[in-house]
Amino acid sequence: MFFYLSKIGGFVIQPSNFLLALIVIGLLVGMRRHWRPGGRGLAWAGAIGLAICGFSPAANWLLLPLEDRFQRPGQIEGFDGIIVLGGAVDTVVTGARGDTALTMSAERITITARLATRLPDALVVHTGGRGVIVSSQATEAEGAARLFRDFGISPDRIVLEDASRNTWENAVLAKDLVKPEAGQTWLLVTSAYHMPRAMGVFEQAGWTGVTAYPVDYRTRGSEDRMLGFDGASKGLRRFDIAFREWVGLAVYRLMGRSTAFFPHPRA
Description:
Elements: H1 2-13, H2 15-29, H3 36-55, H4 58-67, E1 81-85, H5 91-97, H6 107-118, E2 123-127, H7 140-150, E3 158-161, H8 167-178, E4 186-191, H9 195-204, E5 210-215, H10 232-254
Parallel strand pairs: 1-2, 1-4, 2-3, 4-5
Helix pairs in contact: 2-3, 3-10, 4-10, 8-9
C-alpha cells in the first residue's frame, strides 16, 4: 500500500504537476463571473511558481545540500562488495524493446562497472525490481544484468535482487539475499541527491560497513548557487527531483525507515 500511495501522492504534489494544475483550475474557475478574481489569482500563482522553479536557482538551492552531504572515499580498495540501487534502467522501454534502456541516472550502472574493474574480487549487488505503477515486461535487475555481462563482469560476482520497488525494500531485500557478515565493507552507489536517504535507510535496515559512493551529480557545486537555467524544462525537472527527495527524507524518518531526517557521514 505504501508503494502505491507514495507513487500517486508523489505525482500529485510534484511541483511542476501541482503548479500546472493550479493554472488550469484557475482558468476554469475564472470562467464564472463571480469567481473570476479568485480564478485569476490561482492562475497567476501557478504561472509565477512555474517561472520561479524553472528559471531561478531555486532547484540548485535544494539539490546542493543533498549532493554535497556525502563525499566519495579517497581510496577504493579492500571492499567486499558494491551495492548499486535501481533507477538507471527504464523497465517499460526495456521490456517493450527487448534491450536495456537507461534513464538519466545511467551513471549508477556505468560507474558501478568501473568500480567492479578496480575491485576484481568484490561482489556486485544490484537491487531493483519494478519501481513504477505502469505495467512493464522487465525488471531493472534484468536490464542491469545484460549490461554487466556486456561490460565483462563475471556472472559469478553478480547478485541480482529483482523484487524491490523503493529504497527501503532495496535495503531490506538485498540484505536478506546477500546476508552480509560482520566486518565486511560495502560501497553503496546511487545518485548523489539520493545518497543521504539511501545511507540512512541502509543503516536503519541493519547494514554495517557501508561507504557512500555518490554518482549522477546534477550540479557542478557551489558555483551553481546563483545559476538559473536557459530552459524551464531543465529547471523544473531538477526542482521536482529535489522536492521529491526532501519529502522522501521526511516521510522515511517519520515512518522509522531512516536513522535521521538528514543522515550525515559517520566520523
